[in-house]
Structure formats: C-alpha cells, structure tokens
C-alpha cells in the first residue's frame, strides 16, 4: 500500500469533497460535513486469520 493513497469519500457523510489537512500525515478534511479525520495503516493480519460469516468473529 502506498503512503500516497487518498480516501475516495468521507467515512462520516460519504461526500467526495476531501482535502488534505494541515494537521499532519494522513489527515483529511471534508468540506461537506466539516469533519476532520486521520487515516493510518496499522499493518497486516497474521496469516490464517479469517472472519466467519456469523457475526464477523475471528476464528
């Protein structure tokens, strides 16, 4: 995953009018709902972990 990836829509209102924020790396502002949020890549899941169809619990 590239560090330069940008979100396609606001996770709160779904609008696409997003701009990078001056708050730092990965921070974005939505002009539609006036919210600011930050995206961060946490890492990869361990191999073999899968979600079950019932309730999204990990096996």
What features would you describe in this structure?
2% of the residues are buried. With 59 residues, the chain is mostly beta strands. The chain has no helices and three strands. The protein is extended, with a radius of gyration of 15 Å. Strand 1 (18-20) and strand 2 (27-30) form a beta hairpin. The chain has a three-stranded antiparallel sheet, with no helix packed on it. It has strands spanning 18-20, 27-30, 36-38. 0% of the residues lie in helices and 17% in strands.
Please give a handful of descriptors for the protein shown.
mainly beta; three-stranded antiparallel beta sheet; 59 residues
Spatial order of the strands in the main sheet? Answer: 1-2-3
Assess the beta-strand content as a share of residues: 15-25%
Strand count, sense and barrel status of the largest sheet are: 3 strands, antiparallel
The residue ranges in which pLDDT falls below 50 over 5 or more consecutive positions are: none
N-to-C CA distance: 26 Å
Number-wise, the strands total 3
Helix/strand-derived category reads mainly beta
Silhouette: extended
Helicity level = under 10%
If you average the pLDDT, what whole number results?
Answer: 83
Overview in brief:
This protein has 59 residues and is mainly β.
Secondary-structure blueprint of this entry?
Layout: E1 18-20, E2 27-30, E3 36-38
Antiparallel strand pairs: 1-2, 2-3
């Amino acid at each position: 995953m590239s560090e330069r990836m940008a979100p396609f829509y606001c996770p709160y209102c779904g609008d696409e009018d997003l701009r990078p924020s001056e708050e730092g790396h990965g921070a974005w502002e939505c002009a539609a709902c006036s919210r600011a949020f930050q995206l961060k890549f946490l890492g990869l899941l361990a191999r073999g972990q899968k979600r079950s169809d019932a309730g999204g619990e990990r096996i």
